[in-house]
Design a protein that fits this description.
- The structure holds two protein chains of two kinds.
- By secondary structure, chain A is an alpha+beta fold.
- Chain A folds into two domains: 76 residues, Roll (Ubiquitin-like (UB roll)), CATH 3.10.20; 69 residues, [2Fe-2S]-binding domain (DNA polymerase, domain 1).
- Chain A has five helices and five strands, in the order ββαβββαααα.
- Chain A has a five-stranded mixed beta sheet, with helices on one face.
- In chain A, strand 3 and strand 4 form a beta hairpin.
- Chain A is globular, with a radius of gyration of 16 Å.
- By secondary structure, chain B is α+β, with helices and mostly antiparallel strands.
- Chain B has eleven helices and 14 strands.
- In chain B, helix 5 runs antiparallel to helix 8 and helix 9 packs antiparallel against helix 10.
- The longest helix of chain B has 22 residues.
- Chain B is globular, with a radius of gyration of 19 Å.
- Chain B starts with a strand and ends with a helix.
- The model of chain B has no long low-confidence stretch (mean pLDDT 95).
- Classes of the chains: A alpha+beta, B alpha+beta.
- Bound molecules: flavin-adenine dinucleotide and FE2/S2 (inorganic) cluster (2 copies).
- The site of one FE2/S2 (inorganic) cluster (FES) has 12 residues of chain A, from loops.
Chain lengths: 159, 289
């Protein structure tokens, strides 16, 4: 069977690739596109390490076919920092909200999408929004606090 | 190497034709949160994948002329949740669909996929059943409609003919004083499969129930519409006696399995307890007590 040709946008840049029908988006990101920031923790939608955005909504890239990316707008962790780190990235470093770092790209993608929708989340809202991001190192507390503090900083900066 | 074909038709007619042409070897792809896992586990090995998300009516929510809603089968939970009006009119349907998986899963998982996966524990299904949703189905022989509770046949089995695709759910218009709710019992608070799920939809007039629908998930080979429980509620003011009778009807309807999540005795009892709790929320939303 011939490979499928896909044209898509990743972090604002046009990309083209060839894939097999059953190949996951995560596979293509990490392989042909060389974007290895998204991680594969489980391959079954449970851990969130593979979190990317599709048209500004977070999804598990391990549960998306690469062929589905045709004409869509994807965002990965590689697109998060501009000239400077995103405030969430800075805060995660400052507050040591990561240890091994495997979960971190996914957590950051999910947290960023939360703050875009809800600049003033409660701790409860943060914990539920991030329930699909498993971390076996930090015990979550530092992650949640870093997200809350970033939200507070960003609200302050926006004032 | 692969011999799988991926198709993304832009119209329903095209999708029906492509799906029928696979002669049973094809699979519909909505959010893929069940399908991709089953393919990877080797449970399913479709020759053709027909992605229905490029078909506008599959991903749209519309208000119907009579004040109801038509929800495309592939609408994701995240889109459902953001609809400004739907969650006010049918909060139970929205909350049930939003219980499916994490935020990431919500970005893709659909009520159509939840129904067509055929799990008796699918969370959106009891809420749709309680709401009285009607499913529009299209296949090689044309279009037909089916009440949502008639779609599942058994675990993983549906009353769909070969080549048929679920197109949309239609929720009826809501009389004044109506409310719905869905609750599930799970060992965790997120990311788990229902041990029991219960959907209730009520219409109240001065505190008296004038219409009711009750459904249960995860306690039988398919989601159940529990008519005896609804009968026990209709005409009552949701007093303790009526609730006890409805709870008993729920327990009596259970034909559950014993597994690591819950024993038969546990599921049977919890079905009654959940009925009472779910009815209380539905009644509050209906503007009753
Ligand atoms: C981490 C995780 C957590 C989960 N948690 C829950 C949970 O809490 N509660 C719950 O109920 N489920 C849960 N699920 C299961 C799954 O997410 C849901 O069943 C979801 O609603 C499936 O929708 P989908 O659009 O992804 O379906 P898909 O995977 O695209 O499709 C599912 C099946 O239905 C068929 N199909 C899909 N749409 C149609 C259609 N329109 N017409 C005909 N056939 C169709 C497909 O061919 C496939 O066989 C979870 C899954 C994961 C990975
Ligand atoms: S790798 Fe995708 S959710 Fe774990
Ligand atoms: S930092 Fe190691 S998994 Fe989260």
């Amino acid at each position: 069977m011939a490979k499928i040709h896909v044209s898509t946008t990743v972090n604002g840049e046009p990309h083209e690739f060839l894939c097999d029908a059953e190949q996951s988006m995560l596979d293509v990101l990490r392989g042909p596109l060389g974007l290895t920031g998204s991680k594969e923790g489980c391959g079954s939608g449970d851990c969130g390490a593979c979190t990317i955005t599709v048209n500004d909504r977070i999804v598990c890239s391990c549960l998306m076919l690469a062929a589905e990316a045709e004409g869509q707008k994807l965002g990965t962790i590689e697109g998060m920092a501009g000239e400077e780190l995103h405030p969430l990235q800075t805060k995660f470093l400052e507050m040591a909200a990561l240890q091994c770092g495997i979960c971190t790209p996914g957590v950051l993608m999910a947290a960023k999408s939360l703050l875009e929708r809800n600049p003033n989340p409660t701790e409860h809202e943060v914990r539920f929004w991030l329930a699909g991001n498993l971390c076996r190192c930090t015990g979550y507390d530092k992650i949640v606090r870093a997200v809350m503090e970033t939200a507070a900083d960003m609200r302050g900066a926006a004032r | 190497m692969t011999d799988i074909q991926y198709l993304a038709p832009k119209t329903l007619d095209e999708a029906v034709r492509a799906f029928a042409a696979t002669a049973g070897k094809g699979r519909i792809l909505a959010g893929g949160t069940d399908l991709l896992i089953q393919m990877r586990a080797g449970i399913l090995n479709p020759g053709v994948i027909v992605d229905i998300k490029k078909i506008p009516e599959m991903t749209a929510i519309e208000e119907t002329k009579d004040g109801g809603f038509r929800i495309g089968a592939a609408v994701s939970g995240a889109v459902l949740r953001e609809h400004p009006k739907l969650k006010k009119v049918w909060p139970g349907v929205v909350e049930a669909t939003n219980l499916i998986g994490s935020t990431q899963i919500q970005g893709r998982a659909s009520a159509g996929g939840n129904l067509c996966n055929g799990s008796p524990a699918g969370d959106s299904v009891p809420a749709m059943v309680a709401a009285g949703a009607v499913v529009t189905i299209q296949g090689p022989k044309g279009k037909r409609e089916l009440p949502v509770e008639k779609v599942p046949k058994g675990p993983g089995r549906l009353n769909l003919e070969p080549g048929e695709i679920v197109v949309a759910f239609t929720l009826p218009a809501r009389p004044k004083g109506s409310g719905d709710a869905y609750l599930r019992m799970i060992p965790r608070t997120e990311m788990d499969i229902a041990v029991v799920g219960c959907g209730v939809s009520l219409t109240l007039d001065k505190g008296t129930v004038t219409a009711a629908r009750v459904s249960l998930g995860a306690v039988a080979p398919t989601v159940l519409l529990v008519e005896d429980a609804a009968k026990a509620l209709i005409g009552s003011k949701l007093d303790d006696a009526a609730l006890a009778k409805a709870a008993a009807a729920c327990s009596a309807a259970c034909r559950p399995i014993d597994d690591k999540r819950g024993t038969i005795a546990y599921r049977t009892q919890v079905a009654g307890v959940l009925l009472k709790r779910t009815a209380a929320i539905a009644a509050q939303r209906a503007g009753g007590k």
